[in-house]
Records
---
Amino acid sequence: MKILLIGAAGTVGSAIETELGQRHDLVRAGRSNVDVQVDIADPASIRDLYRHVGKLDAVICAAGSVVFKPLAEMAPADFELGLRDKLMGQVNLVLLGQEVLNEGGSFTLTTGILSQSPIASGASASLVNGAVDAFVRSAAIELPRGLRINSVSPTVLVEALSTYGSYFRGFKAVPGAEVALAYSRSVEGRQTGQNYQVGY
Ligand SMILES: NC(=O)c1ccc[n+]([C@@H]2O[C@H](COP(=O)([O-])OP(=O)(O)OC[C@H]3O[C@@H](n4cnc5c(N)ncnc54)[C@H](OP(=O)(O)O)[C@@H]3O)[C@@H](O)[C@H]2O)c1
C-alpha cells in the first residue's frame, strides 16, 4: 500500500513507521524532518499536500496540538489552537482527502485516553479527543466508495514519559510498538467507525 503518514517524525509517528514501513510504501509528512511538509491547521496546505502525493491507499494522522494548562488559566485562544489543529486539522484531512484515496482505502486519526479519563490541565485535549472519536463514528457511515475511517486512542506512551509523565501520575504507560499495532489493525484490517483504545 501507499500510505501517507502525517506526524511521521513524532513519538507516535516513529512507532507507526517502524511497524508499517516494513511492508508498505510510506510518504512521511509533517512540519519538519519529513519527505513532504504540511501544516494540518491550514486547509490550503492540506490541499497542496494531496496534490503533491497523488493517489493513496491510506492516510494516517499522528499529528495534532492542544494546549495543556489549568482550566482556570485557559483563555478562549488556548482552546482555539486545539480546535484548529488537532480537531479541524484531522477533520479537514478527511474532507479534502476522499478523492485521493483508492477504493476501500482508509483514514486513521489519533485521539487519546483523555476523552475517557481526565487529568488536570487536560480540558482541551479531552474536548478534542472526544470530538474526533465522535466524528470518526459518524463519518464512517457516510464515506463513499467503501472508504473506511478509524481512530487510535492511546494512553501515554513509554517513549513520551519524560515529557508528559508528570501529567499522567498513576497511569500505566504503553510502548509505542504496541500503539503502532492499532494503526496496523486500522489500515490493514477491514473495520470502520472504530475507536481503538490502547493501554486503557
Ligand atoms: N505521546 C503520547 O504519549 C500520546 C498519547 C496519546 C495520544 N497522543 C497523541 O498523538 C499525537 C502525536 O503525539 P506525539 O507525542 O507523537 O507528538 P510529537 O512527538 O510532538 O510529534 C508530533 C509530530 O507531528 C508534527 N506536527 C505537529 N503539529 C502539526 C501540524 N499542525 N501539521 C503537521 N505536522 C504537525 C510535529 O512536527 P514538529 O515537530 O515539526 O512540530 C511532529 O513531527 C497527538 O495528537 C497526541 O495528542 C500522544
---
Amino acid sequence: MVKPIVVGIIGAGRIGRLHADNLRVMPSFKLKSIAEAVVGEELLAWAESRNLGSVFVNGEDLLNDPEIEAVFICTPTDTHATWIEKAARAKKNIFCEKPISLSSAQTSRALKIVKEEGVLLQVGFNRRMDPSFRKLKQLVQSGELGKPHVVKITSRDPQPPGEAYVLSSGGMFMDMTIHDFDMARYLMGEEVIEVYTRGANLVDPMFGRCEDVDTAVITLTFASGAICVIDNSRKAVYGYDQRVEVFGSHGSATADNCRPTTVEVSTAASVTRDQPLHFFLERYNQAFTDEVAAFAQAVRLQEPIICSGIDGQQAERLAEAAKESHRTGLPVKLSHGAI
Ligand SMILES: NC(=O)c1ccc[n+]([C@@H]2O[C@H](COP(=O)([O-])OP(=O)(O)OC[C@H]3O[C@@H](n4cnc5c(N)ncnc54)[C@H](O)[C@@H]3O)[C@@H](O)[C@H]2O)c1
C-alpha cells in the first residue's frame, strides 16, 4: 500500500472543513493539523470531533512540522499567494483554493517560487472533476461533437455571500465567474483571445457598495473562432443553476442540473421536478473528492496535476479582462499564450 500523505489545512472555514472531512476518510491522506486564525469553542469542538491532533492559530507553526508533506490553503483569497510562498519555501506540496491571488504580479511571484522550490501546486478548480463536465470534455476531445462552435455556461448561485466575503473575494468575476473561465478553457482546450462583459447590479445594492456586480453576461472568443457565453447571477430563487452546453459541427451535448431525485410529478395543474441540489457543497460533492484524489496521485505517483498554477493564472487573466471590459464597456483582447 502507498504511504498516506501527511497533510495540514490552513483556514478552517466552509471549504477548509469540507476538505478536512474528505481527507479524513481517504486512505491516501493522513490529516494531521489545521491552522485557523479564529479559534473559538465551536472550532475546537469541531476539531476534536475529527480527532485532529493540533489546532494552530498561526499557519507557520503547521508549516514548521517536518512530518507534514502537503498543505491545503483554504484561507480567504487575498491571503493565498503569501501562504503559497511560505508553503513552497517550507518544501510542502500545495493544494490552493481558487483563485491564486487578486493580482497578476502576486500570482506570477507565487508561481515563480513554487517552480524554484520544485514543489507541486494544484489549484482548486474542482468542477474539472465533475463527472458530467468530464464527459463533455471527452466528447469534445474525441471529436464526436465535431468542431466546437458555441459553449454556453449558466452559473447562478442560490444566494449571495455576505459583505465581508465579497470585500475579500476580488469581486464576482474573480470569485465566481473564475470557475466558468476555467471551465471554458478546460472544455475547449485552447486559449481565449477576447473577453467582452456586460455586468449589472440587480440582486442587492450591497454589491454596488462593494464596487461589484451581481449579474453578468460574458462573451469569450477562442483562438479557433469558437464563442463561449457565460451567464452569471448571485441569486437564482429556484436554486443552484449549473448547466453547460457544447454545440459543434456534428452535434451538441448538454450537462443539466443535478437534483436530489429524478422524479417528475405531472398533474392537471403542472409538471414539476425537484429543485437543483442546494449549492456547491452538495452539487460538486463528488468533484471535491475526486480533485483531492487526483492531487494524491500527482504527489505519490507523479501523475500530471489536473489544474496547474498556469491554469489558475490564465483564469485570473480572464477575470481581470472581464473586469476591464465591464469598466470600459469595450471588448478586451488578450495576447495568445503570453504568460
Ligand atoms: N472551489 C470552490 O468551489 C470554493 C468554494 C468556496 C470557497 N472557495 C475558496 O476558498 C477560500 C475560502 O473560502 P471560504 O468560503 O471557506 O471562506 P471562509 O471565510 O468560510 O473561511 C476562511 C477561513 O480562513 C480563516 N483565516 C483567515 N486568515 C487566516 C490565516 N492567516 N490563517 C489561518 N486561517 C485564516 C478564517 O478565519 C476562516 O475561518 C476562498 O479563496 C474561496 O474563493 C472555493
---
Amino acid sequence: MSFLTIQNVYHCFFTEKEASLTLANIELEMQEGEFISFLGPSGCGKTTLLSIIAGLLQPLEGRVEIEGEAVTEPSSAIGYMLQQDYLFPWKTIEENIVTGLRITGTYSRETRQYALKLLEQVGLADSVQLYPRQLSGGMRQRAALVRTLATNPKILLLDEPFSALDYQTKIKLEELVCSLLKEFHKTSILVTHDIEEAIAMSDRIFLLRAKPGHIAKVIAVPEEIRNMSPIQARQHPAFTKLFQLIWKELESLEVQKS
Ligand SMILES: Nc1ncnc2c1ncn2[C@@H]1O[C@H](COP(=O)(O)OP(=O)(O)OP(=O)(O)O)[C@@H](O)[C@H]1O
Ligand SMILES: [Mg+2]
C-alpha cells in the first residue's frame, strides 16, 4: 500500500465575480520514506496542493489518504514548514520549538528532551534561551525545522523553506535536512522553484503546469545522485545532464502555455 495517495484532486477558488480552476486531476502515490519535489511556475498551485495534503484546505473534488486514512483536517501526523519561519518573536527558541508539542497535548519531559536533542543536532544548542530576532535567517529556519520535527510527524511538507536564504546557507541546510530526514526515514514533499535543489534532494520530481495546475511530468532522479549528499550530487556529471533535461522540459511547458 502507498503511504500517501492523492486521487483525482480538483480545486477551485471563488471570488465575487468568478471561479477559477486552480488544480485539476492531481493523481499521485508516494512510498514511505520517499522524498519528492513539486517544481513549477509561480501560481501553478503548488502551495494550494500542499495545503490540501495538509488538510488545511478541502479539495473541490478528490481524495487524499495517508496510510489508507482520508485526510480531512490538519493533524500532528503532518508537519508543515513554510518559506517564512513564523517563529513567535516573543518566545525563546526553546518555547518556540515545543509549541507543536503544547498544541497537540504531547508536551512531556521526554518530548521536550527530544526537541532539545534535535536542536543540538542542527547546531543550535547554544541558542535555547535566545529570541528569534537574535538569530540569523538560516538559524531561524533550522529552529523552524526542529519545531516541525519535534512532534514526530509522519510526513513533512516543505514549502520553499530555503528560498529566502543565501546560496551557501541554503546548501548547508539542504545537507542538514537530507541527513536528518534519512536518519528518521521521513516521507517528505518539497515545493521549490530551484531545479538544482529539487535534483539534489529528491527521489522523484513532479513538474507542474499552470492554468489549471496539473502534473505535466514525473522525473525519477537516478540512483547514483540519490545516494549522494546535496553537495556531492552537484559535482556528478549525471546532475548536470538532469538539470538540462528539466530546464528543457520546463521551457517546453512554457511554450505550450503561450
Ligand atoms: N485563498 C485564495 N483565494 C483565491 N485565489 C487563490 C487563493 N490562494 C491561491 N489562489 C490562486 O491560486 C493559484 C495558485 O496559487 P498557489 O499559491 O497555490 O501557487 P504557487 O504555485 O504556490 O505559487 P508560488 O510559486 O508563487 O508560491 C494562483 O492563481 C493564486 O492566485
Ligand atoms: Mg507557493
---
Amino acid sequence: MVRVLMHGCCGAMGRVITGLAADREDLKIVAGVDRNTDDSLGYPVFQSLEACDVEVDAIIDFTAAPAVDHLLDYCAEKKVPVVLCSTGLSDAQMAKVSESAKKVAVLRSANMSLGINLLMKLVKDAAATLADAGFDIEIVEKHHNRKLDAPSGTALALADSINEAMEDRYHYTYDRSTRHEKRDPKEIGISAVRGGSIVGEHDVIFAGQDEVVTISHTAYSRAIFGKGALEAAKFLAGRPAGLYNMADVIEAGN
Ligand SMILES: NC(=O)c1ccc[n+]([C@@H]2O[C@H](COP(=O)([O-])OP(=O)(O)OC[C@H]3O[C@@H](n4cnc5c(N)ncnc54)[C@H](O)[C@@H]3O)[C@@H](O)[C@H]2O)c1
C-alpha cells in the first residue's frame, strides 16, 4: 500500500482527494500538511513538512505557487517523490522543478485529468493541419472566482503543446486592451474568465475563413483531478529520480 502525504490537505482539492483516497485499498493518506488545521480528515495534520514525523512514500501537492520552492527542497533532501499540482509557477520555479528532478522523482502537471491530457495530443494534431492552412488559434478558459492565477496553467500547457508542434513559431497574447492593431497570425490569444463555481472549462478555437473548429473540455467536478493525482502518486512511489508527466501515468496504466 502506498503511503501518501497530502500537502494542502485543508484546501478544496485536499479535501476531494481525502474523500477519494478513503475508498481505495491500494493507497492511504497517512498525514497532511497545511497552514490551516482540521482534525476531522482522518489522519494527522501538521503545520509544516518539518513537523511531520510520519513516514510516506509520496507527496501530493495542491497548495499554491509560493509553497512550491520549500516543498521541492524538502523532497530532494528527504528523497520523497512528489506529485506537483499547484499552478502559476514562475520560470525560475519551473527551472527548480527540473533541477529537483535530478535528485528525486517529480511529476508536474498543470492538469491531472485524463480528458485534458488527451486534449494536449488532439490540439497538436489539429494545429499541424490547421495552422498552416491559415487558421488563427485562440484559447479561452473559465474558472471559479477563487482562482489566484490567470491564465490557467492548463491554458498555458495547451498553448505550449501547440507551439511544440509548430516548432515554437508562436508567441502568446494575454491582453489586447492597450494595442490597436490586427492580431498577428503567429500569436495564440489566451483569455481568462473568472466567476462563480466553474470547476474548469477550456476551449481551443481554430478560426479559419468561413469555418471554426473548437476543441473543448469541461470539468464537472474536482474529482477528475483528484483521481489523476492519486494514480500519479501510486505510479511515482519507488521510482528513480526524474521528471515525469501524466502521459507516463496513462501509458503505465494501459
Ligand atoms: N494540476 C491540476 O490538475 C489542478 C487542479 C485543480 C487545482 N490546481 C491547483 O492546485 C492549487 C490548490 O488548489 P485548491 O483549489 O485546492 O486551492 P485552495 O486555496 O482551496 O487550497 C490550498 C490549500 O493549501 C494551503 N496552503 C497554501 N500555502 C501553503 C503553504 N505554504 N504551506 C502549507 N499549506 C499551504 C492552504 O491553507 C489551503 O488549505 C492551486 O494552485 C490550483 O490552481 C491544480
